[in-house]
Amino acid sequence: QVQLVESGGDMVQPGGSLRLTCAASGFTFNAYAMTWVRQAPGKGPEWVSTIQPTIWSTSYTDSVNFRFTISRDNAKNTLYLQMNSLKPEDTALYYCARGPRMSPPNYTYRGQGTQVTVSS
Fold it and tell me: In sequence order, which residues have a C-beta less than 8 Å from that of residue 119 and are 6 or more positions away?
C-alpha cells in the first residue's frame, strides 16, 4: 500500500534552516509528481511546492519562493524540502502528498506530517 513518512521537523529560530524528508513506498515513485503541503494551527491546508516526476520542474507558493527548495531522489524513493531563512509564519505541520498541485490540496495519499516550529 502507499506509504509516505515525513521526518526532519523541529523547532528552530527565525532565520534558521531545516531539511524535511519524505520516504515513499508502495508505488512507482518516479511516475508521480510529488507535493509538499502545510497546515498552520487553526488554518486550512496550504500548497507549498510540487516537483515533477522526471524532468524535475518545480513550483512554489509565493511566500516560500527563493527560500525553500524541493527535490527528489528517485533511486531512493525520497522527497525533500530544504527550508532556509525560516520565518515564524512558516510554523505548520508539513506533509508530503502524491500528485500534482491541487486546489484545494485534498490529497488521497499523504503522510502524517512533521511539525516545524519557528520561534525565538
Answer: 11, 13, 14, 88, 91
